[in-house]
Specification:
The chain is mostly helical. The protein has one domain. Helix content is about 80%, strand content about 0%. The chain has three helices and no strands.
Amino acid sequence: MEIGLDSWIAIIGLFLGGGGIGTFFTWRYTRRKEKAEAESAETSAAKELQDIYQQLIDDVKKDRDEQKSYIGELKEDRRHLREERDELRDRQDKMEEKVRELQKIQARQGMKIEAMRPFICYDTKCKKRQLVDLLGKGIDKEEKDE
């Protein structure tokens, strides 16, 4: 059972023309196509990932700018409140000084009234001066004795 030359040529022809080489080239073409699709998918995935990162960076920048403006507003409000507090303290100090001054004046007035008390009488025609309370009513004789 020897295979003759025409059998070998037929086998080689069948292999070359029938599908052996065609399968080989089809397999290489398919492999290259799949590799190109994989690379394309990788690049599109990388591009999408890069877009996501860029959006994250933009969001972080936006949030940071908002926080800076909010902090600036808070600092301005704080400065304003401090100024207002200082102003109120100054006003309170001035009011306390006025109160002390009025208390001194009232004490002096009270001493003057006490000094004038023996000369005050509710009866204007009376030559005898009798003690009266400051509201203009007469003082009872019990108080007078004291």
